[in-house]
Amino acid sequence: MDKIDILSLGLDELEKILTELGEKKFRAKQIFQWLHVKRVFDFDKMTDISVQLRTLLKEKFCINGLFIQKRLESHTDNTVKYLYRLNDGNFVETVLMEYNYGYSICVSTQVGCKMGCNFCASTIAGYVRSLEPSEILMQIYNAEADRNIRVSGIVLMGIGEPLDNYENVLKFLSLVSDKNGNNLSLRHVSLSTCGIVPKIYELAELKLGLTLSVSLHSADDRRRSEIMPVNRKYHIPELITACKYYIQKTGRRITFEYAVIDGVNSSEKDAGRLSDLLRGMNCHVNLIPVNKVKERNYHTTRGAAAVFAEYLAKRGINATVRRTLGSDIEAACGQLRRDADKEIQGNGGADK
Ligand code: SAH
Q: Where does 4-62 sit in CATH, by number?
């Protein structure tokens, strides 16, 4: 029988399993704190647990660790980009950013992505599988240990579509915010989606307090379908209705992500359409100068995002241009993983 991935278990689940094994309930909390507070990932180092119980733990459970395969450090700011190797040899990326209020981390939720947005490197490298809650969590715990810091904000904006790994992402959110464990308020978490409408409704019901970011990138249905295949299933009007429901249900403002791409979505007419679509909504627009992806010809001229922001401002829509951090280690999301796969295929699997 496969061992149980202990880092993916909530405290209640761990309590249940341990009591079924004949242990006292309070042991679960002790172990949970070793893992999530003291960050000890070796059962033998859990010193207030009896040798007997430690042996049982080793028999029944595994600790699903990640390994830092590559670390890219920015020389212009303190951004660090990690390429993590998972236990099965797959890779994911994580970015740690320093702001004046603290550290924020961008985590991946899947190995690759099925969504097929054609400006995104995560899609080009192909989809393999969803991440376990422990694998999302350990991207954070490893980076914190590596830098000896604590992160104060999390964005689910790395590789993958969080709402396509809904159960595990919810589990991760509950683990990361557990009062007996890591205890980070979900108010400091943003979840970014390409717009899986039914899941937006489900998430609204949970009123988690997190910020929902919706990757819009075009207010024109035809154009959006060209660049984001998910739009062929859930058209813009449906998506906006779901967003309005989310805002009304949760009382939270939505952020719309908009990557400004020359000749695709950057004209004044595009800004007009976007303003008409969002007028009156409790939302904010985050403009991102599109990151170059080797395989694609998309680009943005310098300042195009700022010009687009002005077009929106003229129409009464609030927008900011996302600050670029770590521009010297810029590798659009998913590119490190793709390159690592290629390298490893090319050199017989040797670690670099
Ligand atoms: N699947 C989720 C989260 C991962 S992508 C989503 O679609 O929102 C995180 C953000 O980066 C999304 O807004 C995505 O559209 C954007 N993005 C992807 N590739 C990009 C690129 N080349 N340039 C700028 N933004 C990009």
A: 1.10.150.530
Q: Buried b / exposed e across 147-165, counting CB within 10 Å, b at 16+?
A: eeeebebbbbbbbbbbbbb
CB burial of 61-75 (b: ≥16 within 10 Å; e: otherwise) equals bbbbbbeebbebebe
Question: What's the gap in Å between 157 CA and the centre of ligand 1?
Answer: 7
Q: Which residue is catalytic, options 113, 117, 243, 333?
A: 333
pTM comes to 0.94
Check whether domain 67-346 has CATH 3.90.950.10, yes or no: no
Query: Is 333 in the active site?
Result: yes
pLDDT-based confidence at residue 98 (cuts at 50, 70, 90): very high
Average pLDDT over residues 187-209: 98
> So what's the pLDDT on residue 292?
80
The domains of the chain are located at 4-62, 67-346
CA of 32 to the centre of ligand 1 (A): 34
3-state SS, residue 349: coil
- For ligand 1, atom 14, name the residue with the nearest CA: 215
Q: Which residues, at least 6 apart from 168, have a Cβ–Cβ distance to it below 8 Å?
A: 8, 109, 130, 131, 132, 133, 136
Q: Identify whether 310 is a catalytic site residue.
A: no
What is the structure's pLDDT at 333?
57
Rounded to the nearest whole angstrom, what is the distance from the C-alpha of residue 94 to the centroid of ligand 1?
14
Residue 211 has pLDDT above 90, yes or no: yes
**117 C-alpha vs ligand 1 centroid, how far in Å?**
8
Residue nearest to atom 24 of ligand 1 (CA): 290
- 273-293 tens-digit pLDDT: 999 999 999 999 999 988 887
- Best mutation site among 93, 110, 111, 119 for ligand 1, i.e. most ligand atoms within 8 A of its Cβ? 119
